[in-house]
Amino acid sequence: MQPFTHLTAKAVPLDMANLDTDQIIPKQFLKTVGREGLGRGLFYDLRFDADGRPRADFALNDPRYAGAGVLIAGDNFGCGSSREHAAWALLDYGLTCVIAPSFADIFHNNCFQNGVLPVALPAEAVKALMGEALGGNHVFEIDLAAQTVIAPSGARYAFDIDAKLKEKMLKGLDAIGETLGHAADIDRFEHRQALTQPWLSPA
What we know:
By secondary structure, the protein is of the alpha/beta class. The chain has helices at residues 21-24, 44-47, 85-93, 105-114, 123-134, 163-171, 175-180, 183-196; strands at residues 6-14, 70-73, 97-100, 117-120, 139-143, 148-150, 156-158. Helix 3 crosses helix 4. The longest helix is centred in the C-terminal third of the chain and has 14 residues, at 183-196.
């Protein structure tokens, strides 16, 4: 997992509440266990019509937001099923930060396990940020160390984050990486167990 420290990127506004994981990545894209290529399915039913043509009125199809790295969305983002593919699809598309008033718990945790930073801000702050993005100002800054979102206008918004989750993001540690950080302790435990309880060790 790549460390997340500071991001300067375009922000795409998606003024929709209760976007669930089936909308983020529809079920037909869940056949793979790989993380690459899922970006093409991100918001598929919202981005494309029944014939597979891009919907001109959907924000991610607006050329002004091409290459965006930040998504500004409505309340309760990521509700619905627990599919981790939702975080994978965002990341594969290039969106490494989502700003919203609130997130579904499982989706929130999946983001931290996959290098996507979920930033929860008060509804009025999200509305102001979305207004700046809609107004043609697209480049935002997210400083994780300082826990600050900086809008194109220069307005600053502080956000809260769990200290342990923050450290993991800054270091680029998922659950496996965090475990491997204790490799020496694990080796010592296994060596001691092999000496004191040899019947538990594989032959």
